[in-house]
Amino acid sequence: MQLETFQRHMVTHTGGASYKCKDCGKTFSSLASLQIHEKAHTGEKPYKCKHCGKTYRYHQTLQIHERIHTGEKSYECKKCSKAFSCPSSLRIHERTHNGKKPYECKQCGKTFRYYPSFQTHERVHTGEKPYECKPCGKTFSSNIGFQIHERNHTGEKPYECQKCSKAFSCPSSFRKHERTHTGEKPYECKECGKALRALASLRVHMITHTGVGPYKCKQCEKAFISPSSFRIHQRSHTGEKPYECKQCGKTFRYYPSFQKHERTHTGEKPYECKECGRAFSCSTLLRQHERTHTGEKLYECEQCGKACRDYTSLETHIRIHTGEKPYECKQCGKAFRCYQSFRRHERNHTGEKPYECKKCSKAFRCPSYLRTHERTHTREKPYECKQCGKAYRGYSSLQTHERTHKGEKPYACKECGKAFRWYQSFRRHERTHTGEKPYECKECGKAFSHPTSFRRHEKTHRVEPFECKQRGKDFSWPSSLHVKTPTRNKL
């Protein structure tokens, strides 16, 4: 053994260290170790990759990086033959076989396989969030979470699927997506044997057996598997809406909802149907639309056997049987089965019409009304009846039409049992029992049970009536101008 190597080794026993860093006071057993450490203060990265130009502080790190380009994986696992580009990655992988978790939290006793995971966990107790996003000020407890978040601003999606070219901003989402092609479900429940594609899905599933989640809400006792899910849930109690639209000032509780809303201003529709080319602002709407082509209806009602294309539609449908109406208007007390109907109704009070046609500037209360209206310009009628070939602009119109073939009358009055084909007819009938008159004239206060009667009445208050040029008589609405007055037969 060389003298210098022997002296450096002896320091590990004696604790002596002859080389001290002037910046932080840390001591080292050799000059070479001190020089490598000093680069952490100077920011110097002298080792550059010839393939991509990326620079590194240490030569060893560069060597490991270069294997990404060469594809070299010299370190193989004896258990499963999986290969790795560096020995540390192999050692970490081996823990998945031996179950070893060397890092234990002193606060709660939880153990971890990987040191970065252990460090991130410790911040749950300390509340430390050292990584701050400069564009929006949001802070993160882990560097990985911070990097993934930054891509929301940059739009970077470095992980691309080789099967369908779909790109992702984080590796976990990419891996999860790949399994939709391979059909792989690597996470199996030990209780019932159910296999799942994602670890998060397994954790959620396990709560059905244990009834316990590590993060419990003090307000409602609901349990959650992750701190992020728990924090998002807390907003339902606090009313916090941290995401604000710069265009209109509207605030949102959830980031995906905020992103979806922003597209109403930008007009961006990144999700396109391969069958008909129709584009959508969010992936959920695309998936729902795709089922109009495939005819697939995954969700079936246990009460009546009706099948629905998505789970939300099934939930809403079930409320027809239960009579549940969880969404209540604070202005007039009217309750609704589905959230969309509730939001649409609220706009009756506020007068808000956020969806505007680019062709004629006509505005609408909800996006579906706008889409149906836009087809009056394009003359598109994408919904065709399989029985008679008649085509419609809106899907709801097709559904209503199909009932004429089936003889279906899904809306039954609880008071007298009378059934109706159309919901509007059903609601109009209900008012004969309740005496409800929801359409009130702002001019004179007179109320009406039907919107047509209400609109006709409103015209009686017009300042300028419709004048007949032949007879000089005034009328309240234009349709009366076209009615022919019968003439008496002359004797």
Helix content: 40-55%
Strands side by side in the biggest sheet: 1-2
Instruction: Kindly report how far apart the N and C termini lie.
Output: 140 Å
Task: Tell me, rounded to a whole number, the average pLDDT.
Answer: 81
Strand content: 5-15%
Treating each run of at least 4 consecutive H or I residues as one helix, how many helices?
17
User: Rounded to an integer, what's the Rg over CA atoms?
Assistant: 33 Å
Shape from CA axes?
A: elongated
According to DSSP, the number of beta strands is: 34
The main β sheet shows up as: 2 strands, antiparallel
Oligomer: single chain
What are the low-pLDDT stretches, counting only 5+ consecutive residues below 50?
483-491
Q: Which class best fits the helix and strand makeup? A: alpha+beta
